[in-house]
Design brief:
Chain B: It is a multi-pass membrane protein. The complex is a heterodimer of chains A (227) and B (373). Chain A has 227 residues and is of the alpha/beta class. Chain A has 6 helices and 10 strands, in the order βββαββαβαααβαβββ. Chain A has a single domain, classed as Rossmann fold. In chain A, α4 packs across α5 and α5 runs parallel beside α6. The radius of gyration of chain A is 17 Å and the shape is globular. Chain A starts with a strand and ends with a strand. Chain B is of the alpha+beta class and 373 residues long. Chain B has 2 domains: 168 residues, no CATH class; 164 residues, no CATH class. The relative contact order of chain B is 0.19. The mean pLDDT of chain B is 89. Classes of the chains: A alpha/beta (227), B alpha+beta (373). At the A-B interface, α1, α2, β6 and α3 of A face α1 and α8 of B. Bound molecules: adenosine-5'-triphosphate (ATP) and magnesium ion (MG).
C-alpha cells in the first residue's frame, strides 16, 4: 500500500516526577496518494508532534508508521535521512530557506544532497518555480522576497525530489489571508496533479475547503470532522 | 562545494575578515620560518654545507669545536678504520680582520677563520677566483658577503694581534660559521694563527679542533673505543653544539608553535560561532534530507578553500617582504620549508573545523518543525 499509514501510534514523554505525559493517544490514519488531509486543533494538542512522527523526525513510543510500505521503526538514522530526502517533502512555517541561496539554488541544493545536479534537474526545478509563479525571480535571495514568495519557494522545494508524501506545518501562519489562500491552493494543486499523499497542520479553518478530509486533534486523540 | 562557495560569495565581508587574520598569521609564520632558517645558516652554514655525517672531537669536549683540541695524526687512524670512508681535519678561529690600506676602526670585520686541508672534501668550491693550494702561503678563499665590505680578489687582509697577512684568492658562497662570514685557509697556516701564543697547543702534536668524517655506517661507540681520546657525534649534534644555535632555534620554534595553536583557535572558534548561528538552518536542511556527511563536507570544504586562499596570499606577501628586506638580514626562505609550513597551517585549520562538525552532527532536525516557535 502506498501513501502513509498510522496504526495505533502513541507518543508520551517521561516527565521529571516519573509520570507519563501522553501527547498522542492511539492514533490511526491512512492517507492515499492524491489526498490532502488537514489536521486542526488547539495549541499544545499534539499536531506538530504528529507531523514530526510522520516525517520520521521523531520516533513513536508505540504503534507503527509505514511510508510507502517501509516501517519507520526498522530504519537506521542514515536510512531515515535518506527516506526523508527521497520520499518526504516538508513545508515548514517560516524562515526555512537557506539565506545565502537564490530561489533556484534552494531547489537544487536538495538535488545536490542526492548527488549530481543534471540539466534535467534544472529544467524540472525551473518548471516547478514557474508553476508557483516565481519564474521571473530565479536569481533572487530570500531577503529580497516577500513572505508569500518565500513560502511558495518552500512549496516548490518540497516537490523537487518528487516525494510520495508532503507534510506542511502551518504553512500559512505568517501570511495574510489573501496570500494564505494562494499558498494552500498551490499545495492542493500540487498534491492533485502530482498525486501525492499530503498532511497539512493548520490553525486557519478557512483553508479547509481545499482539503479532502479534516481531522481534529484533541488532547492526543484524532477525530474525523468532515470528509 | 555547492553550499561552501555560495555562502562564501554571499557573505564576502564576514569571510574576508577571518581570511585576513589567516593571511596575517600565515605571513608571520613564513617570515619567522625564514628568519629561523636564516639565523641557523648564519650560525652553522659551513657545518651544514659539509658533505659529511659525523664529527670526531676531543674526548670531553661535549660537541664543541672551541673546547676541543686533537692531533691531526688521528686522521690517518680514522681513515684506516673500516667504517670511515674519508676523514679531514678542521680548525676554527674567530678573528678581526682589516683590509690592508684601511686605517679606520669602523672598517674592521669579524670573521671565522677555518683551517682545512686544501683539496679535501671540506673545501667548498669557489664561485670566483681560484681554490686553495698546498703551501699557498696564507692564501684564503672567503665568503662572498665580504664583497659588501669592498674586498676583491687580490686584496690582502691584516689579522688583529697576529703578524701574518692573508691574501684573498677566491670567493665562496653561503659560508658562515658562528654567525660570522667564513674565511678558509690551509690547516697548517691556520695552526700558526690559532696557536700563535706559545704553549696554547697544550702539547698536542699537530693540533686541530675536530676531524670531520664521511661514512653512512659509522657506529659511534665502536669508533670511540677503537681510537683513544676522541668522542664521535653526528653532524646534527655538532650543529646543535654551536654557541647559541639551540637557544635561537628554540625561541623561533616556540613562536611558530604558538602561532599554529593561535591560528587553530581563531579559525576553530570563528567557524564554531558561525555554526551556532546557523543551527536552525542546519536543522531545516537535515529535516529536508541532508545527511551529516553532506553538511560536514560543506563546512570542511569551506574552511579548506578559505585557508588555501589565505595561505596563498600569505606566501605571496612573504616573498614580497623577502624582496625588500635589507641584504644583511639573516633571512633565508627555503621553498621546501615554506611548503611544509603551508601544509601544516592548512592541516591545523581543517583540524580546527572538527568542533563545528561535532556540533553539526548533534543538531536535531526536529527543531525545524514548529514546536519551538
Ligand atoms: N520534549 C518534550 N518533552 C515534554 N513534552 C513535550 C516535548 N515536546 C513537546 N511536548 C509537549 O507536547 C505537547 C504537544 O506539542 P505540539 O508541538 O505537538 O503541539 P501543537 O499541537 O503543534 O501546538 P501548536 O498549535 O501551538 O503548534 C505540548 O503540550 C508540549 O508541551
Ligand atoms: Mg505546532
Amino acid at each position: 500500500m502506498s501513501g502513509i499509514q498510522f496504526e495505533n501510534v502513541s507518543k508520551y514523554y517521561q516527565d521529571g516526577a516519573g509520570s507519563k505525559l501522553q501527547i498522542l493517544d492511539n492514533v490511526s490514519l491512512s492517507v492515499q496518494p492524491g489526498e490532502l488531509v488537514a489536521v486542526i486543533g488547539p495549541s499544545g494538542s499534539g499536531k506538530s508532534t504528529f507531523l514530526s512522527i510522520a516525517g520520521a523526525l521523531l520516533q513513536a513510543s508505540s504503534g507503527e508508521v509505514t511510508i510507502n510500505n517501509k516501517n519507520l521503526n526498522q530504519l537506521s538514522p542514515n536510512q531515515v535521512s535518506k527516506l526523508r530526502l527521497d520520499h518526504i517533502g516538508f513545508i515548514l512555517q517560516t524562515s526555512n530557506l537557506v539565506p545565502y541561496l537564490n530561489v533556484l539554488d534552494q531547489l537544487l541544493v536538495v538535488k545536490k544532497m542526492k548527488g549530481k545536479i543534471t540539466s534535467a534537474d534544472k529544467m524540472f526545478a525551473k518548471e516547478l518555480l514557474k508553476e508557483v509563479g516565481l519564474g521571473s525571480k530565479l536569481k533572487k535571495f530570500p531577503e529580497q522576497l516577500s513572505g508569500g514568495e518565500r513560502q511558495r519557494t518552500a512549496i516548490a522545494r518540497a516537490f523537487v525530489n518528487d516525494p510520495d508524501i508532503i507534510l506542511a506545518d502551518e504553512p500559512t501562519a505568517s501570511l495574510d489571508s489573501k496570500r494564505a489562500f494562494e499558498v494552500v491552493e498551490l499545495i492542493a494543486k500540487g498534491v492533485k496533479t502530482r498525486n501525492k499523499a499530503a498532511f497539512m497542520v493548520t490553525h486557519d479553518e478557512r483553508m479547509l475547503s481545499y482539503c479532502d478530509r479534516v481531522y481534529r486533534m484533541n488532547e492526543g486523540k484524532l477525530e474525523l470532522v468532515e470528509g | 562545494m555547492f553550499l561552501a562557495t555560495r555562502e562564501l560569495k554571499h557573505s564576502k565581508w564576514r569571510f574576508a575578515m577571518i581570511g585576513m587574520i589567516l593571511v596575517l598569521i600565515s605571513w608571520l609564520v613564513f617570515i619567522l620560518s625564514g628568519l629561523g632558517n636564516g639565523l641557523s645558516s648564519l650560525s652553522a652554514a659551513t657545518f651544514k654545507n659539509m658533505d659529511a655525517e659525523y664529527v670526531a672531537f676531543e674526548e670531553g669536549a661535549r660537541h664543541s669545536m672551541s673546547r676541543s683540541v686533537i692531533s691531526e695524526n688521528l686522521v690517518q687512524d680514522l681513515k684506516a678504520h673500516e667504517q670511515v670512508e674519508d676523514a679531514a681535519a678542521m680548525g676554527s678561529h674567530v678573528a678581526v680582520v682589516l683590509k690592508e690600506g684601511n686605517e679606520d676602526d669602523s672598517e674592521k670585520i669579524d670573521v671565522s677563520i677555518l683551517g682545512i686541508e686544501p683539496g679535501s672534501f671540506l673545501e667548498p668550491s669557489v664561485v670566483e677566483g681560484k681554490p686553495l693550494t698546498q703551501g699557498g702561503d696564507y692564501q684564503v678563499i672567503i665568503n662572498d658577503s665580504l664583497k659588501e665590505q669592498g674586498i676583491e680578489v687580490g686584496d690582502t687582509l691584516e689579522i688583529e694581534g697576529v703578524t701574518e697577512i692573508l691574501e684573498v684568492i677566491g670567493f665562496v658562497e653561503g659560508e658562515s660559521f658562528n654567525h660570522l662570514p667564513s674565511i678558509f685557509i690551509s690547516i697548517d697556516e691556520w695552526r700558526s694563527i690559532h696557536f700563535a701564543a706559545p704553549g696554547s697547543d697544550m702539547g698536542v702534536e699537530l693540533p686541530v679542533n675536530a676531524i670531520i668524517l664521511q661514512g653512512d655506517s659509522i657506529e659511534q661507540d665502536k669508533l670511540e673505543s677503537a681510537i683513544e681520546g676522541i668522542e664521535v657525534t653526528t653532524k646534527k649534534e655538532a650543529i646543535n653544539g654551536m654557541p647559541g644555535y639551540t637557544a635561537e632555534n628554540g625561541t623561533i620554534m616556540m613562536m611558530l608553535g604558538f602561532l599554529l595553536v593561535i591560528s587553530a583557535f581563531v579559525i576553530g572558534v570563528f567557524f564554531y560561532v558561525l555554526t551556532l548561528q546557523k543551527t536552525n538552518q542546519f536543522g531545516v536542511m537535515k529535516a529536508i534530507g541532508a545527511s551529516n556527511l553532506f553538511l560536514t563536507k560543506a563546512i570542511v570544504s569551506q574552511i579548506t578553500l578559505l585557508a588555501t586562499i589565505s595561505i596563498g596570499i600569505g606566501i605571496i606577501l612573504t616573498y614580497g617582504t623577502a624582496a625588500i628586506l635589507p641584504a644583511g638580514m639573516p633571512f633565508a626562505l627555503d621553498p621546501m620549508l615554506v611548503f611544509s609550513y603551508a601544509i601544516i597551517l592548512l592541516f591545523v585549520s581543517v583540524l580546527s573545523s572538527l568542533i563545528s562538525v561535532r556540533k553539526i552532527t548533534k543538531i536535531d532536525p526536529l527543531q525545524a518543525i514548529g514546536r519551538v516557535e
